[in-house]
Design brief:
By secondary structure, this protein is an alpha+beta fold. Helix content is 26%, strand content 26%. It has helices at residues 3-23, 83-95, 231-242, 300-313, 322-328, 357-391, and strands at 35-36, 52-57, 60-67, 70-73, 79-80, 100-101, 123-129, 132-142, 156-161, 166-169, 187-189, 196-202, 207-212, 218-220, 244-245, 248-249, 260-266, 269-275, 286-294, 318-320.
Length: 392
């Protein structure tokens, strides 16, 4: 390759890089220029000191606040919040870069979806923290424009913090949703299977109990006949107790009638599950109520944890998917392994003579014997004929 050709390629590469840099910038509108921000979006706000968050959106509002040290959802009667989701929201806000400032953006807030109108309403996130209050408005998403040449413009999200400038973020703020149904903790039980010592099941049709023996092997309780058990099928009950989750919480005055019952005993604590009939208006989900009771002789920390769980669960009626109820209340017959299939009788093969020299010799001997036996018979028949002739 000649030096002239190499020089032209270098110039072309520089031009391409310049075009890419120009089009990767984030202008607010045609002809505008965005200025880079410094640091994180909230600057010096210490998100670890946040004590309350309010999310407001289209037709929905969620108030999250600490109640006796635990995050709760006010719209759900101060039911515990989904802490993993809350942590993700706080982390997303805290880690978000400042983004690019839109010149004169505050003069055109409606163009960025940062004021409510007939077509859109921004998500308003109000945070109470040690330094006071911060309001974050989350506006429209800036979609890429495929009509622009080369790579087009980079997508982003318009936001505004308090009375500051309009900014364009490169990434969305995660979990910023105002619907309270998405914020309460749906996890009901997280029992470790190996810690469950006994379960008692009553379905209205039958009752049975399963316990761990001295060697920790599952067995039928109070069973002197040593009836067999399908451990894989039983483990599905334990799996449901390990990850029991609710679809919804019914109102406090909702009618409830438990028709089936399950008790699970773990280290001196009994978890009692009362399960009602499937409800067609809730996609065949089944209502459930849970109580937690500790024995008198358990350790103080175990008793305190049981009281905490009882305070959370007792008095609430939840809806669980029908498949989870089926896992909790299987028929006993499904937990017993089927009898081994009887093997069909093995057919007895008849001994076949022939096809070999020995077989042919045997057949020849049999034929000779038959001829010998037939010869006396023929002689006797000839003698009888001769006697008859003489007599005549």
């Amino acid at each position: 390759m000649s030096k002239k050709t190499l020089f032209l390629l270098v110039i072309l590469l520089v031009l391409l890089l310049g075009v890419w840099k120009f089009h990767s910038r984030l202008p607010a509108a045609p002809g505008s220029v965005a200025a880079e921000g410094d640091g994180t979006l909230l600057g010096t706000v210490d998100m670890s000191t946040v004590t309350a968050i309010t999310l407001e959106g289209v037709g929905a509002t969620t108030h999250l606040a600490r109640v006796e040290g635990d995050w709760c959802v006010a719209e759900k009667d101060d039911y515990p919040a989904d802490f993993d989701r809350l942590r993700e929201l706080i982390r997303s806000i805290d880690d978000t870069e400042a983004g690019q400032v839109i010149p004169a953006g505050t003069e055109h807030l409606a163009e960025f979806g940062l004021v409510g109108d007939e077509t859109s309403t921004p998500t308003r996130v109000t945070m109470q923290h040690a330094a006071g209050q911060t309001v974050l408005l989350i506006g429209d998403r800036r979609a890429p424009n495929p009509s622009e040449p080369y790579w087009g413009r980079v997508p982003g999200r318009y936001v505004r913090v308090d009375e500051g400038p309009v900014r364009l973020l490169k990434e969305d703020i995660r979990m910023a949703e105002a619907d309270p149904d998405g914020w309460w903790d749906r996890s009901l039980l997280k029992l470790v299977a190996e810690d469950i010592q006994r379960i008692d099941v009553a379905t209205g049709i039958e009752t049975y109990a399963i316990e761990r023996g001295e060697d920790q092997v599952l067995q039928w309780a109070d069973d002197d006949e040593g009836e067999e058990m399908d451990s894989n099928a039983v483990n599905r009950i334990f799996g449901a107790l390990r990850g029991l989750r609710a679809d919804a919480i019914l109102p406090k005055d909702a009618e409830f009638e438990g028709v089936s019952h399950l008790d699970a005993r773990v280290a001196g604590v009994t978890y009692s599950l009362h399960i009602g009939e499937a409800r067609s208006e809730h996609n065949r989900a089944r209502p459930i109520q849970i109580t937690v009771t500790a024995a008198d002789d358990v350790a103080p920390d175990v008793a305190a944890d049981a009281v905490r769980q009882s305070k959370l669960l007792t008095g609430n009626t939840y809806l669980i998917p029908s498949y989870q109820a089926d896992q909790l209340l299987p028929a006993k017959s499904t937990l017993i392994p089927p009898p081994p299939a009887s093997e069909p009788p093995v057919p007895v093969e008849e001994e076949v003579v022939g096809g070999t020299e020995e077989g042919e010799e045997a057949e020849a001997l049999d034929a000779t014997d038959a001829e010998v036996e037939e010869a006396p018979a023929e002689a006797e028949e000839a003698a009888d004929t001769e006697e008859a002739t003489d007599a005549s």
